[in-house]
Each structure stands twice: as C-alpha cells, then as structure tokens.
C-alpha cells in the first residue's frame, strides 16, 4: 500500500509538472519590435480595422465616446460571461503604463503583463498574424486616447473555465500564430483583404463555427455559426450563400445597406462603423477577399 501511494503521488507530481510545462506563456521574441517607430495616424486605421471600440467602449457609445475604452461590455457564451476590460490610457485602471512589449504580448500572444493567460474571447488568435509595424502604430495611437477611471470587472465563469491554466491548455491544443484560412495565389488586393479579415477584423471569430472547446473549425471558414448570446444565428458569408457583387460588398462596408435595402443591425452595425473609417481601397480589398473564399454550405 505504501508503494502504491508513493507511486500515485509521483504520478500526480509528473502530471502536474507536465501541465505547468504545457501551459507556460509563450511570449514574443524580445526583439520583435526592435527599430520600429510608431505612427499614431497609421495606428488609427489599425484601430478601426481591429474593431477595438466595438468591445471596449461603453455599451451604446457613439461618436467620440467610442474612443473612450472604458470596458464593461458583457459577452455571454456557453462557458460563462466575459467582461471587456478597461484598455484606456489610464495608468491605474487601463493600460497607460504598459510597455510596447507588454502590449504586443497581450495583443499577439494573449499573455498579460504579469504572465497570465488571456481567454480567447479576446481575439489574439487572429491578432497573432498582425504585422509588427501595425502593432507598434496601434500602440502609438492607443496612447493618444482619453483615460477612463472605471475599474475592470472580473469575468463570470464557472469551474473549470475560471482557472487560467485552462486557457493555457486551450492554447496548447488550438492556438496557431501563423498560417491563413484562405491560401493560394492571391492578387495583391485579395492578399490585403485577407490580412484585414483574418488578422485585424477577425471576421472568422463570429462567422465560423466552433468545436466543443470553442476552437474555430477552419475547414468551414465563414460557414456561419450560432450566436453565442443565444439569439439567432450569425450568417454564412462564404460565396455558397452570399451572392453579393464586389460593388454590393463595398457599399455594405461603407454605408451598412444590403442590396435588398435592408441594413446592418446588432453588432454588425458597429463593424460597419469601423470599416467605414478605412480607406476605400481597404474596403475593396476586403470585398475581393470575400469573393475568393471557398464556398461552404
């Protein structure tokens, strides 16, 4: 019995050590941003393409209030409710005292300044593909935004999802920092559109179905998915069901009107507000990319 207990304790220690090893935060190389200078004007385009205001401004914010990234929005899911944090320039309640490296690891690797894992409700799985210069420009722009002194609220997650180590295991299984959902010989416009859609605007996070553990099923890219809030369904936007022309898509990204005179609603209305801030060439590139996506029923 003593040998059995000793062996069991040794096995548990080995399992615990393996879990700790597998869930160690994977951070960016320390020289990832070496020699790069941030440009806040370029960073503003990255900000709108990445949809930062859609999650981190206050619920119902309009106009310049969308630039006050106070946090507090609540996002229901089958794993619990995630609450968007304050990412304003406030040094106490926001990210005003973060270094560029800390910001980069948060956005592109899902690792907090104190080494904790962020949950993939924050789409670092897409932002991981962001060009280093775009990240540096975004950091510069974020520093120009107003501070907000609202404390960040904790997520409301049940066990075991409230254990951050679980997020580390999820990363080990599913997080890939490279590669694209749409491969092939793309035109320059389609390539730019892929970068916007897959790395910045993270369109697949809503429009692609997920497996039981919340990872994207990339073989069914843009095939639509259940609404995590439980109301309705997020549509299939692959060419199998979305038969809009390039001009239709660009108009939708600019004004929010569909070819049949409907308008964008819900969270998509905010996405359109973001895309409308981009240069027209970027909206055209996004349309070209969508037309290149493989049709999925």
Automatic annotation (TrEMBL):
PROSITE patterns: CYTC. The keyword Metal-binding applies. InterPro entries: Cyt_c-like_dom, Cyt_c-like_dom_sf, Cytochrome_c-type_DH. Residues 38-146, 188-294 form the Cytochrome c domain. SUPFAM superfamilies: Cytochrome c. Keywords: Heme, Iron, Metal-binding. It comes from the Bacteria. Pfam families: Cytochrom_C. This is C-type cytochrome. It comes from Halodurantibacterium flavum. The lineage of its organism: Bacteria, Pseudomonadati, Pseudomonadota, Alphaproteobacteria, Rhodobacterales.
